[in-house]
Prior knowledge:
By secondary structure, this protein is α/β, with parallel strands linked by helices. Helices cover 39% and strands 21% of the residues. A five-stranded parallel β-sheet has the order 3-2-1-4-5. It starts with a helix and ends in an 8-residue tail after the last strand.
Amino acid sequence: MSDAGSLLPRLYRADREGGWTQGMRGVSHALLAAAQVPHGPLLEAGCGGGAFAQELAERYPGAPVTATDIRPAALQMAQMRQGFLKLAQSDVHALPFADGSFALVAVLDVVDQRAVRVDAGLGELYRVLQPGGWLLVRVSAYPWLE
């Protein structure tokens, strides 16, 4: 496992309790509170350890929540959480879902990652968004977080 790969489980665990990550998720939830998200399935693409996906499931009871990540370690950590049932390994360039599948697509600190082709990634996220749905995109606070 690479040095970065060996740090991921610790990062995903810290995501649950870290003040910075809790605060940033709070900002994302505040933005969603002002939105009229239509009823339907929800997606978090690039879910990391699954903290935000779990919170989506709690915030929108009854709405199916799907979480995806390119890294198996992320999905293993997300699987330990409660509140959502569907996990899929994929990246933002090739989501394994039909056009217009989701009422909300959230992608937090992903589209600015070095390996992401922004135009292609955003196009794919938009493709799986249902008409009238919401796309919530957040980018990393600092360039070194890419």
